[in-house]
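Deliverable D5.2: sample structural annotation.
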Amino acid sequence: MIRKILASISVTLAIISFFNCKTKNIKDTENIEIVMQHKNILKEILSPDKSKILILEYVDKMEIPILFKYKVLDSTSKKELISGVFSGVKMEWEDDTSIKAHSYIAIVEKDNQNPEKLYKIIKVE
């Protein structure tokens, strides 16, 4: 008697739970647009003796290499000493008269025996 009652209750619960399960409707995803935002970045970096300013302008697109537009100004007169464009990974002051511009080199091409290939020195006068 108890077995019949437990069996009927379990069958009833199984049927109720079966009909309460709902499928998830998946919508069509063909019309979704992914928009990447780009930020224009302007950095001013002082030289070690603070006599010159390196101004870097580039677009942050999350891509490598980065196309840097650079200029060097005299900090007192604001006179432009040098300007140009460099494609690479990073630019920084090496000393008061030169900029170290790090080139982009893929992992396959990386050669630790020739460190001069890893960066370019730009002289500022």
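Annotation notes: The chain is about 15% helix and 40% strand. Residues 39-123 form one domain.
The annotation will be released with the project's public dataset once the embargo ends.
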